[in-house]
Specification:
9 helices
């Protein structure tokens, strides 16, 4: 039984590792392409590898989340405009637009008492309503900060710095997620059946 549990855990870690690789891979490949061949090649590589990552996500995990789908559409549209018009500013604006859109959706959900994070993560996390509100507020503010940082970087620094910053957004997001564990722990809701079992024991 222990061996089966160990295999299940390894399989779970493997799937999580693959998911991270699919999300981060296109950014790393684009940065490498920029260093080797320049901005427009990097843009094309980003577009192509993003499509491959989305298809792989659909095949391996059975679904593509709405955030990934929306991001992919924006990458393709703004990437195509960058290549067609030979203007790097379009793809550079993409992170700003995506993060502002995410922040706006979360703020709208808070204003209408429908925290969208609960809709996205409700199956994975069981939090109180206050917990979802706090977590949603923090993520919305984080997305605003990312959008502002992208504006500062692409308007004031070199193309290479911007591509590096774009890759760095992913680990920064993971660090921010990890930093929310205190909020998650404080507002975690214990399932009723688990509470009953604990009381009986």
């Amino acid at each position: 039984m222990a061996e089966l549990d160990g295999e299940a855990k390894q399989a779970g870690h493997g799937r999580q590792g693959l998911k991270l690789a699919l999300e981060l891979g296109p950014l790393v490949l684009a940065l490498v392409a920029y260093l080797l061949a320049g901005f427009y090649w990097a843009t094309g590589v980003l577009m192509a590898s993003t499509v491959v990552a989305v298809v792989a996500t659909r095949v391996v995990f059975g679904r593509v989340g709405p955030a990934l789908a929306a991001t992919t559409v924006v990458v393709l549209v703004f990437g195509a405009m960058t290549l067609w018009l030979r203007d790097p500013s379009f793809i550079k604006m993409k992170p700003t637009i995506v993060n502002i859109a995410f922040a706006a959706a979360l703020f709208f959900g808070l204003a209408t008492d429908r925290p969208f994070l609960k809709l996205l993560l409700g199956e994975a996390l069981r939090l109180s309503d206050e917990g979802w509100r706090v977590l949603t507020w923090r993520w919305a503010c984080f997305f605003v900060v990312l959008a502002a940082a992208n504006e500062v970087v692409w308007r004031n620094f070199s193309d290479g710095t911007w591509w590096t910053f774009k890759v760095a957004i992913f680990p920064l997001t993971m660090l921010f997620f990890a930093a929310q564990w205190g909020v998650i722990k404080r507002h975690m809701v214990v399932a009723a059946d688990a509470t009953d079992k604990a009381a009986k024991s």
